[in-house]
Amino acid sequence: MTVEHHHSSNLHSSEPHSTAYSTAGHSTAAHSTDNALNHVIIEFYEKLSSWEHAIVRDKGFSLSQVHTIELLGVHGAMRMKELADKIGVTTGTLTVQIDKMVEAQWVVRRPHETDRRSILVELTDKGQALFLEHDALHLQLTTDLTAKMSSEERIVLLNLLSRMNNEF
């Protein structure tokens, strides 16, 4: 499937999706903007999620596994606890997932060099290849979605999204 197929509807709609009304502490305009942002962010998330599901559907791994591969590909070897926190699951849930990923030869576990109580998880060569392939698909999507933006707009978008990510 092409990237264009997955984002064929207009992502750039500036029309608010709900009527504006005043609430305590919010002006009508601010509330309308908040509602519009809410709906646009949700719409973008849903489209990105749908694209991601379509990409991984036939690859033989789950969305949570590909997110684990992405985190390890970007950050390198990580402690189980740190990885579980970044994914938003318990270490018990992650252990089950990592067991399957070890069996598929995408990751390996190894003792931490300085903390004997900690186990590190890292990508194998096979896992690194999956990361690079998946990361290239994300880069192509990003390129396609921002193709009509100027360099300045892309920098503003980068800064705004980075600030939003820092709020989590």
Explain this structure:
With 168 residues, the protein is mainly α. Helix content is 62%, strand content 7%. It has seven helices and three strands, in the order αααβααββαα. The protein has helices at 3-6, 28-56, 63-75, 80-87, 91-103, 125-145, 151-166; strands spanning 78-79, 107-111, 119-123. Helix 3 (63-75) crosses helix 6. The protein is globular and about 55 Å long. The model is unreliable at 1-23 (pLDDT under 50).
- Average pLDDT rating: 84
The biggest sheet, with number of strands, parallel, antiparallel or mixed sense and barrel status, is:
3 strands, antiparallel
Total of helices: 7
Structural class, from secondary structure content? mainly alpha
Could you spell the SSE succession in H and E letters? HHHEHHEEHH
Beta-strand share of residues: 5-15%
Could you give the order of strands across the largest sheet?
Answer: 1-3-2
Q: Which residues form runs of ≥5 with pLDDT under 50? A: 1-23
Helix content: 55-70%
* CA-atom Rg in angstroms: 20 Å
Termini separation (Å)? 32 Å
Shape: globular
State the total count of DSSP E strands: 3
